[in-house]
Specification:
This protein is α/β, with parallel strands linked by helices. It has a single domain, classed as Rossmann fold (3-Layer(aba) Sandwich). Helices cover about 50% and strands about 15% of the residues. The protein is built from 8 helices and 7 strands. The chain has a 7-stranded parallel sheet with strand order 4-3-2-1-5-6-7, sandwiched between helices. Helix 2 packs parallel to helix 7. The two termini are about 30 Å apart.
Length: about 220
Amino acid sequence: MSRESWKIFQIMAEFVAGFEHLSQIQPSVSIFGSSRTKPGHPYYALTEEIARKLSDAGFSVVSGGGPGLMEAANKGAYAGKSPSVGLNIHLPHEQHANPYQNIALTFQHFFARKVMFVKYAKAYVCMPGGFGTLDELVEALTLIQTGKSTRMPIILVHAPFWAGLVDWFKKILVAEGAIDNSDLDLFSVVNSADEVLEVIFRYYEESGFAPSEAEREIKLNL
């Protein structure tokens, strides 16, 4: 058997471990943000506050498990009532596991890790971040837009940071017909921790928290 074929078993092991651990932590919220933001920065404090309030409200908090705003998310959740989960990944640089994780999984493959972020999430919270944060945001928007994932709140935190991107969505993507104007309703932009919780609870008060049979099937086949 070739080396490439053996990789199938490593990939399978990552999915099995992820499914077994994360299926037990629902409901959960995935939080994304820059690994480069240091403690003491306002974004760090805000992320920690959001995660703590989500944890105390009964949501497990899932982050990428690394430093920066991932650490802030885990730290806030770790101090709260619900599990703090880190989906760590092997990288040549930048990534090291933060110490605020009740459940820590480590992945070799980005694609397996990305499935875990979305499969069990009841909401996505995107703090200011770089390419990785944008990658997770656009993937979630694409999955929901195409019906490959169920609808959930996608929340961009700190309006001044996201203003340029949202403006580009409106003035270029919608204007060029690359997306529909209604696609702009797939996400919300807020500035505070309380607003994050308000968006999530308002959404599920209107749509119902328990997934329908059709939604369960969509998540199963994600």
